[in-house]
Each structure stands twice: as C-alpha cells, then as structure tokens.
Design brief:
With 281 residues, the protein is of the alpha+beta class. Helix content is 50%, strand content 10%. The structure holds flavin mononucleotide (FMN).
C-alpha cells in the first residue's frame, strides 16, 4: 500500500510514552509541516504553544484531569490567534474586525485544527505517537494565564506527544458505507444504523449503579422531560445495563451539562477576546 495511505489508515492515538525527548530536528520538521497546512486566505490565524518543562507539563495534566499527560515529553497547545493579525492590521493602517465576527472565527477554528492535524500526521511519519486533548476548552482561562496568552489568542486543543512505549491498538470506526453519501444525504434504516454502531462498540455495556441511574435520569429529564426519562430508565433496568449511547450522552458527555453550560462558554470565549460570542449577558 502507498506509504502515506498506510500511515493514515493505521494511525491510532497514543497515551503511553518513553522518556525520550523529541529532538530539535524532529520539532523543526513538525512545525514546518504545520505551517504548510492549508489555511483560509493563507492568513495562518493560529499560534502553537510548545510545552516541555516538567512544571508546566504537570500543571497542564492537572488542569486537563489526565495524569498520563505528565509522561508525555512534549505538548503543543494550538490556539486561534487574532491578536497577531490585529497588530499587523494596525501597523499597516488596515481595518480589522475578525474577533468580533463569526465568519472569521469559523475559518480560524478550522485553520487551527488543520495545522494541528498536519503536525499529528507528521509526528506519525517520524515514529512519534500523539493524542489530542480536548478539555483545554474547560480550562481556557487558566491556560491563558499559564501561557500568558493575550486577548484574541484562544487555546483550542492540545496535542500530547512522544515516542510510544506501547504501540496503540487501532479503534473500530463506522465504515465509509455509513459516513459517505452519494450526491444527497440519505438516512439509513434504523436496523442498519444500530448494527453499525453495535459493530463499532462491540459489547460496550456499563453495569447499573444507583448513582449512575440517578445521574442518567437527571440528564434525560433535564433535556427531554420526565416522561421520556422514565421510559429510558425502564429500558435500562429491563436490559440490566447502560448501552453505549446512554453512556456517552447520559453519563460521560452529559447532554444536560453540555446544553446548560453553553451561556458560560459564550462568556468565557467573549472574555478571551472573541467578542463575536458576547451575548450581552
Ligand atoms: C478533539 C479531540 C479531543 C480529544 N480529547 C481527548 C482527551 O482529552 N483525552 C484522551 O485520552 N483522548 C482524547 N482524544 C482522542 C480520542 O479519544 C481518540 O481520537 C478516539 O478515541 C479515537 O481513537 P483513535 O484516535 O485511536 O482512532 C481526543 C480526540 C480529539 C479529536
């Protein structure tokens, strides 16, 4: 198989690392790959904060609530950066409103992630392992303070990286037959949808505990009302386990918490300098 295709198809997130540092030469190659990623208007509205020191690594691990991060020798925090563009515009006597408008945010968010993914793939090509770390979003203020990010520089996601100590196993995925649509979107029949997810999450069942059941009922009733919550709970009890969708949306990424924390998130993004999220509240 083509080498690049093999790399892309065989990749997996890595969460165990040796103590070996990422060399300056490897770092330079990673960053070179990152800056050549596609970016809207070739504007590169992103910055990357490189973290290697033990104290900062430990702080990051604590903020993200994932202790394995302490063992990764390198962390790259990918940030949207409107600050640099705003300064450039001012110095060049040009108008600038990107931090106050939704469209530039939409593009800059994509630019930032695309740059991160080019670096992620480059890392795989160099025999490094990496894993994205999402909870950066819940800690934007603390990370802004820790990395002294000016207004308009917003951390989006982090990539923990190093040489794998155990080669990670591949995760199952929904296949092209499910995620690709020919010309127009089509809803696959419910039975096919269920079997595709069953195949992906084989035997992913979670035992019932009183605490989880209460938490699950709380999540469902807050979003869809008590009647549906009762129906869901009755189903869980009859089946004697939580299925994967219930674990994901009712216990792990709780639908109610996601929904009701949105105003707080808008406020946080607005405070970080993205005035386009200022709802006036
Ligand atoms: C935006 C994003 C955030 C993620 N956050 C975390 C995280 O906080 N901790 C973690 O261990 N893995 C995290 N991951 C890795 C996913 O769990 C992983 O990609 C997924 O389980 C699929 O496995 P694979 O990457 O090996 O194919 C994240 C991935 C993405 C793309």
């Amino acid at each position: 198989m083509n080498k690049t295709l093999k790399l892309l198809i065989n990749r997996a997130s890595c969460r165990t690392f040796t103590k070996k540092k990422v060399s300056p030469a490897a770092l330079a190659s990673l960053f070179e790959a990152g800056i050549h990623a596609p970016t809207g208007g070739n504007l590169q509205p992103y910055s990357i904060i490189k973290i290697e020191k033990a104290a900062a690594t430990a702080r990051l691990a604590k903020l993200c609530g994932q202790s394995f991060l302490k063992k990764a020798p390198l962390h790259l925090i990918f940030c949207i950066d409107f600050h640099r563009l705003k300064r450039w515009a001012k110095l060049q006597e040009a108008p600038f409103s990107a931090e106050r408008a939704l469209r530039p945010f939409w593009i800059a968010f994509q630019d930032t992630i695309i740059c991160a993914q080019s670096i992620c793939t480059a890392a795989d090509a160099l025999g490094l392992g990496s894993v994205y770390i999402g909870p950066i979003f819940d800690r934007i203020s603390a990370i802004r303070e820790m990395c002294r990010l000016p207004k308009g520089v917003i951390p989006v996601v982090s990539l923990a990286m190093g040489y794998p100590s155990i080669f990670p196993g591949q995760r199952k995925k929904l296949g092209p037959g499910i995620v690709v649509h020919n010309e127009v979107y089509r809803d696959i029949p419910a039975a096919q949808l269920l079997s595709a997810f069953d195949e992906k999450y084989k035997d992913a069942r979670k035992e019932i505990t009183a605490k989880d059941l209460k938490s699950f009922y709380g999540a469902v009733s807050a979003v869809h009302g008590r009647k549906f919550a009762q129906k869901c709970v009755t189903g869980v009890k009859a089946r004697k386990y939580f299925n994967k969708a219930q674990v994901y949306f009712g216990l792990h990424y709780r639908a109610d918490k996601m929904l009701f924390s949105t105003p707080k998130h808008f406020k946080m993004l607005s405070r970080a300098g993205l005035a386009c999220f200022d709802t006036g509240k």
